[in-house]
Amino acid sequence: MSNTHSSRGLSAAALLLAGLCSLPALAAPATGTATEVMAIPTAEVAALQAGFSDSRQINTQRGGDKIYQAICQGCHMPQGQGSKGAGFYPALAGNTKLAAGAYPVGVVMNGLHGMPSFAARLKDEQVAEVVNYVRTHFGNQFTDAVKADDVKLFRK
């Protein structure tokens, strides 16, 4: 077994059972150091950092698409298709619950089931932007826009 996998604390048996690699891959030598393999070009790092605030409490992205990419798509997937596995993340694509703008605003502001509240991390304008984005994309055609003033009603 290669030290590549064991140095990361993963046994060959665990990797094989998880289906993450094949036996020949375990025997293959690693190419490059961990630093080289994990390196991200400086320009890409700068582009990623530009969209985030210095405070971990506040997201600074603007525009529903950017907010969705930064916060939502990790669970709800890039095309809003949702996922099942370690948890259940409902599909936003074609979701009739989004017809009433108050519903997604309430979910974003207060959380629901396993989804956390984003009230402390997003300003009213940002919540309106991402809700409007989701309601008009992924096959959804709910065009009655939510406004920042509508979101204020959900602040505790």
Q: Your description of this structure?
A:
It comes from Comamonas terrigena. Keywords: Electron transport, Heme, Iron, Metal-binding, Signal, Transport. GO terms for molecular function: electron transfer activity; heme binding; iron ion binding. This is Cytochrome C. With 156 residues, the chain is mostly helical. It has a domain of 109 residues: Orthogonal Bundle (Cytochrome Bc1 Complex, Chain D, domain 2), CATH 1.10.760. A two-stranded antiparallel ribbon has the order 1-2. Strand 1 and strand 2 form a beta hairpin. The radius of gyration is 20 Å and the shape is globular.
Topology summary:
Elements lengths: L2 H4 L5 H7 L4 H5 L6 H5 L3 H9 L13 H13 L6 E2 L3 E2 L12 H9 L13 H13 L11 H5 L4
Descriptors for this entry?
156 residues, mainly alpha, disordered N terminus, 2 strands, globular, heme, two-stranded antiparallel sheet, metal-binding, Cytochrome Bc1 Complex, Chain D, domain 2, 9 helices
Radius of gyration: 20 Å
Calculate the terminal CA-CA distance, rounded to whole Å.
55 Å
CATH top level of the domain at 44-152? Mainly Alpha
CATH hierarchy: architecture of the domain at 44-152: Orthogonal Bundle
Structural class: mainly alpha
**Annotated CATH topology of the domain at 44-152:** Cytochrome Bc1 Complex, Chain D, domain 2
Number of helices: 9
What is the succession of H and E elements?
A: HHHHHHEEHHH
Average predicted confidence as pLDDT: 78
Strand residues, percent: under 5%
